[in-house]
């Protein structure tokens, strides 16, 4: 574990919490073709928070997520990862068509070398958690789009992640299912307490899901603002939220994006 250092978050200097899962410190990214995708970024993903990231196409959201995953290096600056178990959820659930829901859910744990009995147990528990225990023996083609996304979530949960990196996971779903899936994610978050970096094009979704919202802009890709939610999610669907304050935040973010 590395020692504390000073980072700038949302224009404010603070001492990085040792509990932060990932810390970006003056991080830039220039691709091998010379394209400067990210201007210096200072940001932390805190342990146990849902950090949503919203911005226009091409502003560097996926670039940032790939660096958080350790899949791509910074050109300058440093990315510090203080996390052992990371799971990924993408827009495409990427299920193996010839494998059962149960086998698909076990897949990541299997690749990571988790023993058979343990991965079975973890996958079954994760499937129960997303409400799909009853279709464990079905094939992916027998499921709806929302159910496939739930399998993708269960597969991510089965390896007990500290950090979930989610790149527009619900973008391909219809509006109704999308709403339900964001409630579902928050319920799972409440149950398991993992940190989340959640990329979306939707301001509404970013505001609903995030404890903090990172607003990105392009030309070059950068963090234009980091905003604390005025009414953060608790994961309890029966707990009321301050919808007026959340609407005001959505308008503020839209204004930032329009002028950034
Ligand atoms: N391997 C690469 N080589 C060169 N340029 C790249 C590469 N990957 C991404 N880019 C460019 O970097 C910029 C940021 O890309 P990135 O995928 O991070 O944006 P994004 O905000 O996630 O976009 P979207 O919302 O459309 O998915 C884009 O202009 C993209 O074309």
UniProtKB/TrEMBL annotation:
One Pfam assignment: ABC_tran
Recorded GO MF terms: ATP binding; ATP hydrolysis activity
Record-annotated ABC transporter domain positions: 22-243
Glycoprotein is among the record's keywords: no
SUPFAM superfamilies: P-loop containing nucleoside triphosphate hydrolases
CDD domains: ABC_NrtD_SsuB_transporters
Protein name per Swiss-Prot or TrEMBL: NitT/TauT family transport system ATP-binding protein
Keywords: ATP-binding, Nucleotide-binding, Transport
Domain of life: Bacteria
InterPro entries xrefs: AAA+_ATPase (IPR003593), ABC_transporter-like_ATP-bd (IPR003439), ABC_transporter-like_CS (IPR017871), ABC_transporter_ATP-bind (IPR050166), P-loop_NTPase (IPR027417)
Source lineage: Bacteria, Bacillati, Actinomycetota, Actinomycetes, Kineosporiales
Stored SMART domains: AAA
